């Protein structure tokens, strides 16, 4: 009897884990970054990518007016990235 209950509990745990794995949202991460400067006129927004958010590397994701994501280094590692973020914040397009 105890073996049946333990087996049922194990099965329930496996099924719950399996179901939750398919209900989580996919994380859109940059896998690499480019140091090539992105023109301000093509960028409408940005977001910071962190390693504790489920991504392998820290990065800055710039969203273009055509809804493309361009991956740049974090602002602390590149001056043009920090400058572009400041410009987006002053324009209210964060």
From TrEMBL:
<dbReference type="GO" id="GO:0005615">
    <property type="term" value="C:extracellular space"/>
</dbReference>
<dbReference type="InterPro" id="IPR001811">
    <property type="entry name" value="Chemokine_IL8-like_dom"/>
</dbReference>
<feature type="domain" description="Chemokine interleukin-8-like">
    <location>
        <begin position="26"/>
        <end position="88"/>
    </location>
</feature>
<dbReference type="InterPro" id="IPR036048">
    <property type="entry name" value="Interleukin_8-like_sf"/>
</dbReference>
<dbReference type="GO" id="GO:0006955">
    <property type="term" value="P:immune response"/>
</dbReference>
<dbReference type="Pfam" id="PF00048">
    <property type="entry name" value="IL8"/>
</dbReference>
<keyword id="KW-0732">Signal</keyword>
<protein>
    <submittedName>
        <fullName>C-C motif chemokine 19-like</fullName>
    </submittedName>
</protein>
<dbReference type="InterPro" id="IPR039809">
    <property type="entry name" value="Chemokine_b/g/d"/>
</dbReference>
<dbReference type="GO" id="GO:0008009">
    <property type="term" value="F:chemokine activity"/>
</dbReference>
<keyword id="KW-0202">Cytokine</keyword>
<feature type="signal peptide">
    <location>
        <begin position="1"/>
        <end position="21"/>
    </location>
</feature>
